[in-house]
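Lecture 7 notes. Example A: sequence first, then its structure tokens.
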Amino acid sequence: MNLTRTLVLGLGLIGVSATALAAETVRYVALVDGGKQAGQQVVTRGADGKTKVDFIFKDNGRGPELKEEFTLAADGTYLTYRSQGTTTFGAKVDETFSRKGHEVQWKTTSDDGHQTVSGTALYSALGGTPESFSVAMNALSKRSDGKLPLIPNGTLTSRTVATAKVECGKSPRDVELHAVTGVGLTPTFAWATTGANPRLFAYIYPGYLQLIEDGCQADANALEARQKQAESQVLVDLAKRLGHPLAGTTLITNARVFDSENAKLGPSSDVLIQDGRVVSITPAGKGKANADNLIDAGGKVLLPGLFDMHGHVGRWDGGLNLATGVTTVRDMGNDNATLQQMLVEIKDGTLMSPDVVPAGFIEGESNFSARNGFVIKDLAGAKKAVDWYAEHGYPQIKIYNSFPKDVLKDTVAYAHSKGMRVSGHVPAFLRAQDVVDDGFDEIQHINQLMLNFFVDEKTDTRTLARFYLVADKTDGLDLDSKPVQDFIHTLASKKVVIDPTLATFEFLHQREGEMSPIVAEVADHLPPDIQRGRRVAEMNIPDDATAQRYNRSYAKMIEFVGRAYKAGVPMVAGTDEMVGFTLQRELELYVQAGLTPSQALQVATWNGAKYTRTLAERGSVAPGKRSDIVLIDGDPTANIADIRNVALVIKAGTAYYPAEIHEALGIKPFVPAVKVSAAR
């Protein structure tokens, strides 16, 4: 789960600060899990015009540490800027910017540049802190047109979507919720003070983080509730604009239907759907069905809706997921209240989103705990968590890093007694073999599998060691050795599913300045700020020798997955990263590992349904099943890269045009949409 990347990189891309403010120190606290402090930000504005920021955030055994220092021009934009520290996974941050007259220049660990700029323009820092909101809001407030040009590119805008009155001790305050657009693919929301020089009051990521002025914590939950309400209205409007309900019957003609059960492409067919279900599949041109709506597939490939089996869903993920053909996501850990709200919104049709199959998150109490779901201390607490998830219809639980190993086996058995599957990370001081012996049905992430060969009972994998150990040591692992072969045989014989999330772990070998492999093939379609942000590395790779070793280690991880699949180990396709595009890259990596494109597609469709226990409803295009279907311009069974050419998506009874969604998100469409037409 990489929300910390979203926090720091996302905010940094707005990088500005307040001006015309008196010398002062403002403190913020970062709260998770209903009020536990996980970090802080201290902003000191000096009488000499310099602002200094100390920011630290630690959750799940990782997080950034940053120090900023900057000065401002009269228009509120940077004259000088410096940020130093480390990213979530320990990579170095060292960023500078300066402006002299019309000339600006910048340098980061991943890029550098210079421009000639006329008038007001704001530098978008890659390694910025949440204080960036203060500057953005203040600089925007001085712009009569409400638009703030950005350096190197882009334009920032903001609008007020809600107001609130907060009680900070004995000092009542009026604050406003701003929706900031022009950076990233969706709006970013932040609470600001009012008046002539607005600045950041609170940044809230609902269900995960509350960063708020110290002394005002008592109002954090109320602000979060108000923010979710304001976001809901924006999301409802978005769903109405981009979803196209299919009334009556719809006939898709001349489509080559992918047989996901047998992993092969079928002949050209006509598919009739009604009320969100597939009614019939007949040879192309042979049926006599009358329909209210027609879709001419023109020989394109029709797939079942894709499954992302490792998501941490947010309310803004729906567009990007649907546009890439994902119609079902298995949520692998979330704030329970937030997810329950989302499930209701999805059921009611007010939220544009794939359907969600939830896995109940259970963590153990420690200084490294991830604060999602339930955090427990003993078997009684674990059973109470399992009971809650069972009562709320969760088919599965997920165990996490700090879970106490002495109650693991009994917890697994108790969940099984409730008819639930059990998966997760390998808790600290255990190996993957141990959790298999204790009854796990599934293991998440390639690093958790590879750590099996590098840890002992004293290795604390709640730290960054769980990433650096596999990057350092997998290169030297003999995949033909008896320990590796025995482990693969055990996984296969016990039918333990693996969820490798290979694409996510490409960060293990990405160097500064290199485009993230997740988006390398689609980068030209993405907004410039996303492209720039995706050149930022997350691991500390100090030299070429280390880089070469990490590359070889990652190649062996891919090979391990291929060997496991060929040995009969069940597999599902998940991401745990940028939604949509990451799943497409994941399938490419499966083909690189030795699967055929059709087998990779089977993993992302049939297997997804099988291991979410939804196979009776989803996972294949068949009469009686849901009409969750994806039309591909090209043949992904021959060339898996064609999976990116999504021309139409139907989720139950609603059609979505990926080109239309991508345009709304600032993404250049990949192929023209195939649209629904009324029957004549």
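Example B, a different protein, same format:
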Amino acid sequence: MIVPQGRPFLMRTAGLSVCALLVFGGGGPIGPLPASAQEAASAVQDVTLQNVTMTFGGTVLTAPQVIVSGTRLTKDDLLALLRSGPEPLPARLAKFDAASIVIPELRSEIRVGPRTQTVIYRDVTAKDVRGGRIAQAAAAGATAAEAGGGEKRSASYGRMEMRDVDLTAMARLYGEAGDAKSPMMRLYGAFSVSDTLMEADGTVVKVARIEGTDLSGRQIPATWTGALDAMARADQAQGNPADRARIFGVMADVLDGFSVGSVQATGLTISQTKDGEPVSIGMGRMVLSSGGLSMEDLGFTAGDAAGKLARLSVAGFSFAPTVVAMRKLSTQAGEPTEADLRQMTPALGTLAFKDLSLDLPPDEVPASPKPPGAASPVLPPAATAPTHIGLRDGALAFGPLRDGVPTTGRANLSGLTLPASAVAGIPGLGSLGAYGYRDLDLNVVADTAWNEAAKELSFSEVSVSGKDMGSVTINGTLGGIGPAVFDPDPSVSTFAMLGATAKALDLRIENTGLFERFIASQSKSLSLKPEELTQEYVTATTFGVPAILGNSAGAKAIGAALGQFVTKPGTFLLSAKAKNAGGIGMLEFSAAPTPGAVLDRLDVSAKAN
């Protein structure tokens, strides 16, 4: 269907597709036929209806011709079931039985605010319609258009098929209010749509095939028809606190009110022109299920930039925290606060990706200004080489939330490749190009966890390693990290961080080539032999470092270990633990008169190789 005001009407599409396809878009409790029908229709017959009109919620369905085969209902019985009256629509339509229904053309019209959506289905069929349930339904295709609102939107669909459709559940869902606590009702067992094409505001979306299983929903106070209408008008409610609160409640009901066994889409492409530059996105396959979401063979182009991703998956994602926060906002007056909005963060779970490739356009080097009085013209900017960034594997895992912030997290990036020129401006990495590294191949790990009871933030591993370079790994513990650190008010969280303490730190440095390249580069620039420069560094670390750190036992241990590392670059290990069980406060670090004053409050050990 068309997306009013830019919002995806997925549930309206699902429901109205079935309802419109079958004309009798709802069902009700299964019951016996009226006595008059039983008496008048003693045999199975075929009935043809002309110029049929039916209203389903805010939708008007019309069909020039409806052919009902294998039914015991008469023409008058069928027309009576379609007319509005005191008997609810679900109860009326549940009495409809037929071997098959054929509708050559079916028109569905929906009005949402100033917009009118019109969908025309071709060659609609339904088979084995019994007591509000349909074994099989199909349409050869459909076209859709939206008028009003100043923006043109249109869509077309190829063949549509559905199985095990429960019109009883669907009609109750869309037309009857509930308390949002009832059990889920299965709407249909399976569905598929081929060759979807949607155009809106210069954006074209194509999907070769969409298919799914076991779509279910529960009744909500606004009904699903009312909820989808309310969300379509959400922009109009932004200035009214009462309307905004109501929409928060409606959105919570919708998020919590449906489930799907699985949905799969293949052959997705999105194209548009933004600021005069063409943008294209493609995806080979997407699968959504209760276990998570996965996408395969993704790619994009935007001007001179392009990217590919073999696989992206999400596991453990949940809107449960979002639903709780929205229900709370639905009872509050006034503008939502920053704290309220942070509470809407969903549970993030684990995001994993494989074989990422990015090709970015070259940067332009600004032309030098023309010297005063120079006759030569200013040369145009020179372009550098394109930048290629790759990633073999990556995973981001997030734990339970506190005020919208994950309390645990792990990032693991393997095979991060990029040119050394891309990090030229980053301290500590900017000189890698001078050491002979043209391309970098890095692994990055960051693993953190907050212990509320102990008020500690632990870094079980923070590491960076590079091919033909080495690695740096840090483990540590910060104390004094209470709940206030997660407060959405920056002044509160910043002040809370001032009370943090350093309890322990372990550092491991392993060299696999970087140090030798560093010595070679520095010795060349200083016109020294590598062994001469190495000896100078040995002297500086063995005697200079302890002097700077106060010549304590710990300082001397650090200096001796560094001297051994420089002599034979291999592995350097440093361990520091606060003598006070509470740790050393951050303010104490900044107020210490000398590094030695801090070192005296630590138990330190160091060794190399």
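Note on Example B: Residues 1-42, 364-369, 377-382 have pLDDT under 50 and may be disordered. The radius of gyration is 34 Å.
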